[in-house]
Amino acid sequence: MSKEAELLAEIDARAQRAKDADLSLDYITREARDLHEKFPHRSVVEIEERIKDAWRTYGVVWKTSGLKDRD
Predict the structure, then answer these.
(1) At 19, is the secondary structure helix, strand, or coil?
(2) pLDDT of residue 35
(3) Within 10 Å of residue 32's Cβ, how many Cβ atoms?
(4) CB distance 15 to 54 below 8 Å
(5) Residue among 45, 64, 66, 54 nearest 13 (CA)
(6) pLDDT confidence of residue 4
(7) Residue ranges in the chain whose pLDDT is less than 70
């Protein structure tokens, strides 16, 4: 399997796990940095965009802030 295919498979697997979580944009950035270490042929920004695309496909919603809403 090529590095690109491995990266996309990893993003897909993480998107599936993230579907029911309460996530923020900060989480996406951490995931992208983590994946960039394993797949340096893509920049962190490129990986972030691919994560967002995958999450949209799975219907994952993320917050733009790392702070959770409080009642």
Answers:
(1) coil
(2) 95
(3) 21
(4) yes
(5) 54
(6) 92
(7) 20, 22, 65-71
